[in-house]
Each structure stands twice: as C-alpha cells, then as structure tokens.
Specification:
six-stranded antiparallel sheet; 623 residues; 25 helices; alpha+beta
C-alpha cells in the first residue's frame, strides 16, 4: 500500500438497519463504498488508490487503511486462517506500518486504529446503533454535535493531559476509542470496546533491543519510500531526523532535506545537518533562516480548517506550510518527520521507581546520576523512588493541584506531570476539568501496573496523537508528513528493552544510538545539544500583537466561560509576564484558534466535495 498527497476518511457501519436519511446523507458525501456480505453498506468515505487493501474470503471481509506491508493478496491468505474475529489479530502478526483495521464476519464487526494513536478511531450512537469513523469531526457532522465545554476547558491545561483525558474527542456525543482498544459491534448494531494490544515484556538487553529497533525503523521507512522516489525530509542534525534520512537513503530515496537555522547563539542544527547531508548520497539540502519564513504565529487572522483537536502546531503552521511548498517544488511526494523519537526511544525517569524494587544497586546508581544532572532535591527524589500512591489516587490529587504552580525544581512525579491551569482559566474551567479527573479516578486503570511503564506508554501515545495532527496538517498543505517513530512495531521494539538500558543519565538516547551504529556517522550519534527558537517565538508574538488584541477582545474561550477576559488579555499582550513558559500560552492559543476555525468552517472540508464513486481495489500490490 502506498501513500498519496490526498488524505482519506471513512465511516464504518454495523451490519444493521439504519434510518434512510442517515445513509442518504453519508452517500451524498462519500466517493467510495464497500458493502457487508449481507449487502448493507459497511465502509463509506473517500480514499485514493493504494490507501485501502481489501480482502474477501466467503462471508468474511478484512480492510486495512493507510500504510501497511500486506497487500490484498497477502491479506486474503491471512484471512483464511481467521475463522472468527477473535483470531483476527493473530492473522495480522508481522504486518507493519501505520494503519486502521476493519473486518466484518457473519454480522459481527471489528474496527481499530493503531496502538500509538497515530491512527485514531471515534464512535457515536446514531439511532441506537454504533457508528465509528477515523475522524471525530465526521461523526460530529453526522449527528450535529457541538464542541464539548469541559473538553475545551481541559485543553487549557499544561504541560499535558493525563490518561485518559488526552486524546478525547472534542465533541459532545462523540467518544474516542482508546489506542490499543478495538470497537466490536454485534449483529444488532450495538458496540463495545475490547483491548487488542498489550506491551511486550521489557526484558531485552540494549544490544538485542537495538537490533529490534533498527529492523523496525528500517521497515517503517522502506514501507514509505521507493528507489528513485523524491522524498522530503526534515534534517535538524539531531539523532531522530538524521536516522530517518540515512534509512531513507539506504532504501534508495532521492532526498530533499529541510533544515531550519534559528538565530539563538550556540544553535548547532545547521552545522550538524550539513555534516549529515554531505554523507547522504545524492541528497539536495535546503536551508532556511527566519528571514526566509513566516514569523511564528503567522496566519492568526486567517482561520484555517480545524484539525481534529487544539494543538501547539499553531505556532509554526505557516512555517511548515511554506516548507511543504518548497519541498513539493523539488518534486517531493511525502515528508519524513523525526517527530516521536524523543517520546519513543527514551523512557521517562519514573522507571527508577520500579527498578529500585528489582535492582536496588542499579536504581540508586542511575538515580544519583539523574539527581546530579537535574539538581533534584532530596525530598523530591525520595518521593519518586518510594511513592506508593495508586493511579486513581494520583488523579484525585491532580484535581486539587490544578491551580498550583509548578515547583521551582524537583524530580518528576512518578505517574507523570500534574496538569495545571493558567491563571486566566475561569473557575468554571477548573470545575469542569476537576470533574473529568474525578470521573477518571473512579473508573480508569493505568496503562501499566508499573508507574514508569505507564508513563512511557502515555508518552508514546502523546507522540502518536501529535503525529496524527502533523499528518492531517501536512495533507492539507499538499505534502503528507509521516512519523515512522510512531509505527506500532517501533513502539513494541522500544518497549521490549529494559528501561534502565534505554534510559541513562550519562548517555543521550543510548537505544537509538546503538540501533543506528554503523549506519549514521558517530559524530551525529554523539550529539547532545538541542536548538531552540525562543527569540523567534517571542518576536512572533510581538509581530502579531494586534491580532492577539483582537482575539482577547472577541475571545471564544471567554464566551464559552472557560477564561477570564482581563487576565487573558494581559497574558496575550504581555506574554513575558507569564510564568508557565511557552506551553502555558500555547495551550490557550491552540484552544482559541480551534474554536475560531470551527466557527469559520462548520463543515469539514473533506466532506465538501463528492468525487465520482469507483470500485475499491481488491488486489493492491505489496510493497
């Protein structure tokens, strides 16, 4: 299956009767349709050739949307072994990539996204039956849903939302299916969720785990590129993007790389990127300085089509659109992004909590290194190592700490950072977010029993969530952005490694460095610096101060009761007085922008035009 510059969308219907008006509304916008064996509609949407692999064996149908290593012919062979839906995942073992799965057998349905969350899934009740889609906004359009006030309030929180609040649908009546869960529908149309993914045992030593990661990344990149194909790629000179570039070159891609050189003294991306480009055969390096690009936050006065949810991508969305245009002008058909590398290959340091119980000497030695490097206070370090609070208890504590400022210094919290609200968030917003946390504490279990493993999986899913938004934004700009680090096989490879080997206070990304040893030059693997664009960020806010003043005076967050007008105005016009850093302000800007975009574009752009219907390909060539 291959990628194209157009995105796909789909709705999955159970094998049940629907109100005629519902089907008519969907068919009016869908370019493609696949029926259940019963003849009732199953898949409706729009997808290009190569974005769907479809196999049929008797009354069983199996479909994969996205980038998958299995063709329709291969799927047909595998489907013969899966007599029931319970055996479907066994039949998909070894299929790598980033894709959705849909199946129907004897009136029973099965749909899932990816474990990373890079391929998301949502559900809604429509006339007493469960309908699901790859985009929450499709279902919101179908059932005339409105943005959910509590979920808007939650998006003011920073630095991140915890599980299960992160990745929730923004629409009332539309619910997210959690990554790692599948939606199963009965013949009557009712649906329930069930887990399909479990993390692998974390038992591999570094050397063995590095081989697994190298193989997984190599397959992830090779799946997306072809020999001689022009491929755009980010090249910061950092380990993540650089590794993907060398893997793409190994697969025969004709690379056009993009490097940003921000103005801060001591930034080194350009130097390292040039060193890498000189060693990438046939690569065409493109370099950009701030004067070549739109300012940060450009386009505030031009509401675009909204993404699935508010995000921090608002900061450089115009920049990325310009880069996509430049790469396209060189013939690039897709763009490789190193996004997710930081989240996937390095475990959060809370793995020390469990390591202390398995190997006290190793835990204390590594803790000493992290404590010295991060200047952790002794009391905070002791809480990290010895804390015994359950995850529901942690969520309950998070309710009480929404208004507390971050401690001036300290070891990370064992289950992850507490969400905090900015001072301009209203009392209503605080109550709504506290209620969401309280309900989660009553019914949610952690993603793993060990706090460090829970935090690592959540960190990976946060990467996958943003990867989905990057792909959506890139597709809108005409150049889909692919994040191979967020493929499920890559996640599994990293999670199979002992966390004390993958994380270290003395070396940077030891797992990825070992995986790329011999392929990426050692100088690049030994880099420990990271560039920043603080000057450009502040200059962007200053440049667009007039637009921010308009936002403050006409804020939809204020209209929704989520923000206090006077405090919000001060935050937008005097960002230097804010104490929560970039994340504090960007969460609010992302939420405000999303509300404005939804108001400006009440109907999704991808539903606006109906393409001529065509028969789906049932024998997509394997790659």
């Amino acid at each position: 299956m291959s990628s194209t510059a157009s995105g796909y969308w789909f709705v999955v219907l159970p094998d049940a009767e629907f109100p005629p008006g519902l089907l008519a509304r969907l068919r009016d916008r869908a370019a493609d349709e696949v029926a259940h064996p019963s003849g009732r509609p199953w898949l409706l949407g729009a997808w290009a050739a190569g974005q769907l692999a479809l196999a049929r064996v008797g009354d069983r149908l199996l479909a994969l949307f996205g980038e998958a290593s299995a063709s329709a012919a291969v799927l047909r062979v595998r489907l013969k072994r899966a007599r029931t839906l319970t055996g479907l995942e066994s039949a998909l073992v070894g299929v790598h990539g980033s894709f959705h799965v849909a199946a129907t057998m004897a009136g029973h349905g099965y749909v899932r996204g990816s474990a990373s969350g890079a391929r998301r899934l949502y559900q809604a009740d429509v006339g007493g039956v469960t309908v699901c889609a790859d985009r929450a906004r499709t279902l919101a359009w179908l059932v005339d849903a409105r943005p959910d006030a509590a979920r808007i309030a939650a998006h003011l929180a920073f630095p991140q939302l915890p599980h299960p609040l992160a990745g929730a649908s923004m629409w009332s009546g539309v619910e997210a299916v959690a990554p790692g869960d599948a939606l199963c529908t009965e013949p009557g149309g009712r649906g329930r969720t069930a887990g399909w993914w479990q993390p692998p045992p974390d038992v591999l030593p570094l050397a063995e785990g590095a081989r697994e990661l190298r193989d997984a990344l190599r397959e992830a990149v090779a799946l997306r590129v072809r020999p001689g194909q022009v491929v755009g790629a980010d090249l910061s000179g950092g380990m993540d993007s650089t590794s993907l570039c060398f893997l793409a070159a190994e697969s025969g891609a004709s690379l056009v790389t993009a490097t940003l050189h921000w103005s801060a003294p001591g930034n080194e991306d350009r130097e390292y990127a040039r060193y890498a480009a000189e060693r990438l055969p046939g690569a065409e390096p493109l370099e950009f300085v701030p004067a070549d690009l739109p300012a940060c936050f450009a386009g505030l006065d031009e509401p675009r089509h909204p993404l699935e949810e508010p995000s921090c991508l608002l900061r450089d969305r115009a920049v990325q659109q310009r880069l996509a245009g430049e790469l396209r002008s060189w013939g690039a058909v897709l763009r490789l992004s190193g996004h997710g590398g930081d989240h996937v290959v390095m475990p959060p340091v809370s793995y020390l909590h469990s390591l202390l119980r398995r190997s006290p000497r190793a835990a204390l030695r590594q803790t000493a290194g992290f404590k010295a490097r991060g200047r952790w206070p002794l009391a905070a370090t002791a809480r990290l190592l010895l804390g015994h609070r359950s995850y529901p208890a942690w969520l309950t504590t998070a309710q009480r700490r929404l208004r507390e400022g971050a401690p001036p210094g300290g070891a990370p919290e064992v289950w992850g950072p507490y969400p905090r609200l900015p001072v301009w968030a209203s009392a209503q917003a605080a109550e709504q977010l506290a209620a969401l946390l309280g309900r989660a504490a009553e019914r949610e279990l952690p993603l793993a029993s060990e706090p460090g493993r829970h935090a690592w999986i959540h960190q990976m899913r946060e990467a996958g969530r943003v990867a989905a938004l990057l792909h959506e934004a890139g597709t809108e700009a005409g150049l889909p952005a692919h994040s191979p680090f967020c493929d499920d096989a890559v996640l599994d490879a990293c999670l199979s490694v002992r966390p004390e080997d993958a994380g270290s206070p003395w070396t940077y990304k030891p797992l990825l460095a070992a995986a790329m040893d011999g392929l990426v030059p050692g100088r690049l693997l030994n880099r420990t610096s990271k560039d920043h664009c603080n000057a450009e960020w502040h200059q962007g806010l200053k440049t667009h101060r007039r637009h921010l003043a308009v936002w403050a005076d006409t804020s939809l967050l204020v209209a929704a009761g989520a923000a206090e007008p006077r405090a919000l105005r001060q935050a937008l016009l005097s960002p230097g007085l804010n104490t929560g850093g970039a994340a504090e302000l960007e969460s609010t800007l992302g939420a405000e922008a999303w509300l404005r975009e939804v108001a400006a574009h009440p109907e999704p752009a991808y539903l606006a035009a109906r393409r001529p219907q065509k028969e789906p390909s049932v024998d997509t060539t394997a790659h």
